[in-house]
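Issue 218. Parser rejects a valid record. Input:
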Amino acid sequence: MTAPAILEPIIEFLGHVTTPQAWIERALREQEILLLDHRVLEYKAAQSALSLLGRHINRPELTAKMSRLVREELVHFEQVTRLIKKRGIALKGLSASRYAAGLRTLVRPQEPHKLIDILIVGAFIEARSCERFAALVPHLDAELAKFYAGLLESEGRHYQGYIELARLYAEGEDVEARIAEIRAEENRLISTPDEQFRFHSGVPV
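Output the parser choked on:
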């Protein structure tokens, strides 16, 4: 699929709320932080998928998708690490952004609702990552632009996989209504002022 074809359903899933121009401008000025945070996010994506796999080891559809996702996210983690080292950036820890934590406050504590919510949150994180890669590509140097463009397809698959699982395990719940509820918070986090710059942060202040 071409980038526009991949992006179209993702933009729709995100409620047509796209990355603010101010965030793109800040990202271009702070590429070191962008890459360091991206590296951590790839690791956390693998960690989250592995955790889901472990908690739902007897759901074959979920374990198949999560096993593949873990492997792909760890490859991306290694690729970002190599880019960081190549550019002479020192590895260091960064505080987490408000984004994922904000979305997870909506996760209900009881099953099966908890699983459905975690899967939907995962879909939004992957979809937003894909949308941000696409927003950045036209502005980056050739090496980083090629890398981020290459991530678009896999991140698009990840978002779709999460949503497919949410619908599969819905058990009569209105998944589309739940998506809409979580989308509202996702859009708020992306569109409102944010004092901290990270890969998934909101409008820089």
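Fixed in the parser; the record now loads. DSSP finds eight helices and two strands in the chain.
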